[in-house]
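Predict the holo structure. Ligand: TNX.
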Amino acid sequence: MAAIKYILLVTLVVLFSSKGHAQTNAGFPAIIPLPAEVKPTGNVFHITPATVIICRDTMLTKTAGLLNLYLEANGIKPLVVKRATAVTNCIEFKIDTVAVTNAEGYSITVDNNDIRLTGRDAGGIIYAIETLRQLWYRVDVHSLTVAGCVINDHPRFAYRGMGLDVSRHLFPVSFIKKYIDLLALYKFNTFRWHLTDDQGWRIEIKKYPKLQSIAAWRDETLIGHKKELPQHLFDGKRYGGYYTQEAIKDIVQYALQRNITIIPEIEMPGHAQAALAAYPQLGCTGGPYKTATFWGVFDDVFCAGNDSTFTFLQNVLDEVMELFPSKYIHIGGDECPTTRWKVCSKCQQRITAMHLKDEHELQSYFIQRIEKYINSKGKNIIGWDEILEGGLAPNATVMSWRGEEGGIAAAKQKHSVIMTPESFLYFDYYQSLSPDEPLAAGNYTPLSKVYNYEPVLHKMDTADSYFIKGVEGEGWSEYFTSESKVEYMVFPRAIALAEVAWSQPVQHNYNDFLERLRLQLGLLKQLQVNYSNAFDEIGFTSLAIEKNIIAVDLQTSFPAATICFTTDDTKPSLHSNTYTSSVLLNKTSVLRAQLYDTNKKPVGREFSQRFIVHKAIGKPVTLLNPAYERFNPGAAGLVNGVEGNTRYNTGQWLGFGGNNMEAVIDLQSTQTVQSVAMNFLNYHWQRMWAPVSLDIYVSADSMHFEKVFTQNKFPINGINTVKASIQPVAARYIKVIAVNKGIIPPGEYGEGHKALLLVDEIIVH
Ligand code: TNX
């Protein structure tokens, strides 16, 4: 009887484990980042309270503690022993530099009787533990099950980083630890901690108490987006705080136990307004200054001509270097206007005395002087790509954020580079185009874009690509107003980046990644991570077909999903239409749709899109001038029935860089035209300008055009809707001429560059 029970149990367990939520359909464990080599063996191991952790090496005691911690979170507390008393039912750790040859490498063998974790060093063992944490899953309350496998693994890049800005918004120690925990789970090895900026100084420096009493505080905080609102509103609440040195030491240790190095960033010479508020004598004008309450780049920076600036920064760095064992110190170097330096007598004297050519070289002098100091303490600097201007400091590592050109240039000069291009790796950007998405910095970086990022560019030669040491994703916190919002913005994009950083490019496959990601969502839920599931949300393509009909195709990356939809602007439910093929719309409609999983549970947020059926739908459009590459859905985008919205990257806006839009629509038969409507996007902060004037003409023969409408005021910051009601007129051709602003005037963002004119749909009734 007992034997039968046992067989039953084993069968059950094997059954469950082969379907276990930690495995993909192909029977592979759902590990992220994907290991270099995984072989399922068909064995199965159960971690129970009777399981013993064997750890012969005292160096690994702390590491064993980490595994214990993770198991305890699952209600299991195994015994850690130095020497095995039993040979079965154990998890064994071993450092073996012969068996594991690659840097940071590890291997795992899961048999029926034991699990063996082997690392090249203690860090490798930690990675093995993190992998194990993704492998186990619960079949019954007393144990965790691990499907048998052999894994050999090591990373592609030596630098796998994530940043977090705690200046714009501050997060408690408990949250910093949670963030570090999640980075460890995905085998990041570096956390760049953005500790100082214009809006708050967050690290206790004992020598300078005003950094705590003044620089750590701001009077209030901007509400909403810094540029989308016509007027700025502030919350009127004093905001601030800082991390004590004790808290920092605790966090540094916490990170080390998870094989994560923390690189502190102390911003200079720019982004220094909070420090200047505390010590105004360090600025060119002498102040007074205030900790910034607004987001952006500020003219007041550290004075480069004043020696006491360097004394201050060196004293600060002394305390910083004492706290952080990291070999690297990040000194910022980005976004430093030279406005004050140009008119500061001390800065000008420095330029003369040091035979510098200009203020760019003064910035370079500043960075090099600090670098020399940091090097003298046995450490190296990292700076943003602006440190290339005016000459790179001799041993500096460059973080390439304004695209990749800075990284390429630095690599050519044989400097180490971390790729962190904003359009791929800034996680304060939107990850969804839904208008319901919480406020973000702008732009659009969906999960797939992060996943498909390749830091070693084809155009780089092998010698240069050697200097690309890795990647970093950024958590700038202007709009990260809560811990849960940080999690929402960063996860799962950081998880996609983890695979870019760790796995080899030939292994990358977005759909396979998504399958593993979905299998990990349970773990993220268990860890109480407020991740975004926007990656599966419904997308659409539409096509205007004959007789004023729009055919809409809906897509999702979610497998075996059911999409239910309505076309009358009512809320979709399981009782609504089920999507099987193109939805045909013969009148203007709002299409709303919801995704359901195989258990009929809704997944993600509702999709909602208006489609406008009008006389010009799908008709031929001729453009006199070429469209601007970044905003070019083709001329047909002007008559596809879909408008643009304030998320300017939806692919619906047609842009013209410096030149006019001159479009002629052929209605293909003479029709009565009584209105022509369209939108222009006016976002000067994105170099987008409404037209100077708009003229609309009609014609029966495409030769003789008659002007029927003109407008030259477009006052709205945002979307300007033009609706031209005209005397009903018989026409076949409609010509629209929108005159571009041309060159952006002085004093405006992007001055001297070509203005972008953005038009969405030309709606003809
Ligand atoms: C640019 S990246 C910055 C940050 C902002 C970020 C917002 C960099 C070196 N500077 O100060 O927080 O954009 O996206």
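The longest strand covers residues 661-682. The domain at 621-764 is CATH 2.60.120.260 (Jelly Rolls).
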